[in-house]
Inverse folding.
């Protein structure tokens, strides 16, 4: 594999774990990212890199030169006002370049509510939340540019992400966990380390125009996962509430959707065995690190 120059639009926890995976595997690469404050030189895991200002309609014009020199692009910036900001602002430059790998991180909210049934990549997309609608619009725009201009794009639909830094155990310990009771409510999750591994594998096993669900093997309810976290930590769960009791509109929208995400295509194509096949393995690892 030739030397990688990776350009990350956004550099949150998925991007950081991806870069950490590349470092651990001693991949030869350079990194460039964007942030919403100012252009700076930063360091992550002893890797120095340039991070360029990009926020809405404003960006550091020097960003373009670095984008033109890159061959891999990861997009983890969420849509804003139903617009995908990266395509909106940089479409011309993306179409003029010789990228060989572009990955757009989407979300399984694009499927909408399936009443607790299983969905795969061929299932009908019927988002009911504004975030899900925006994600689907962004996916369709990226895939349009793949079909019309051969832009080498893959779409990863991520389930609910958890990590050592952000997880139900920490919320339970801080007294911020809400246990929501709703019959037949299922959702899927994925540990960020497994996302990073899939991204790394896809650098050499890549098929443009494909969509993959990135999810673990065990869809479950909020209450089921909370009970398991409580058992691991010996912390008593707070009193259960109902979806209508939630103040956050985003969370209310979340509880309108119930579905189980199939990961069969992901495991088959990437020949991948999950590091954390269910929330139980993931939470055990987190508890071992915390305790």
């Amino acid at each position: 594999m030739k030397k990688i120059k990776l350009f990350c639009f956004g550099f949150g926890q998925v991007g950081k774990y991806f870069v950490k995976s590349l470092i651990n595997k001693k991949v030869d690469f350079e990194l460039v990212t964007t942030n919403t404050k100012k252009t700076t030189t930063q360091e992550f895991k002893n890797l120095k890199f340039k991070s360029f200002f990009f926020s809405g309609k404003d960006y550091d014009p020097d960003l373009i030169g670095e984008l033109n020199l890159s061959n891999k692009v990861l997009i983890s910036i969420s849509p804003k006002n139903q617009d995908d900001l990266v395509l909106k602002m940089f479409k011309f430059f993306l179409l003029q370049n010789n990228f060989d790998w572009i990955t757009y991180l989407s979300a399984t909210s694009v499927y909408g509510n399936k009443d607790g049934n299983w969905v795969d990549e061929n299932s009908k997309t019927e988002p009911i939340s504004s975030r899900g609608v925006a994600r689907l619009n962004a996916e369709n725009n990226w895939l349009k540019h793949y079909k019309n201009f051969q832009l080498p794009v893959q779409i990863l639909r991520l389930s609910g992400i958890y990590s050592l830094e952000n997880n139900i155990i920490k919320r339970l310990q801080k007294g911020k966990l809400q246990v929501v009771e709703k019959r037949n409510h299922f959702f899927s999750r994925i540990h960020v380390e497994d996302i990073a591994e899939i991204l790394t594998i896809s650098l050499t096993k890549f098929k443009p125009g494909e969509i993959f669900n990135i999810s673990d093997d065990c869809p479950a309810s909020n209450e089921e996962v909370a009970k398991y976290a409580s058992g691991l930590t010996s912390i008593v769960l707070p009193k259960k509430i109902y979806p209508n009791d939630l103040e956050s509109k985003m969370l209310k929208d979340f509880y309108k959707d119930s579905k189980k995400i199939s990961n069969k295509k992901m495991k088959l194509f990437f020949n991948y065995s999950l590091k954390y096949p269910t929330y139980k393995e993931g939470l055990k690892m987190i508890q071992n690190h915390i305790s």
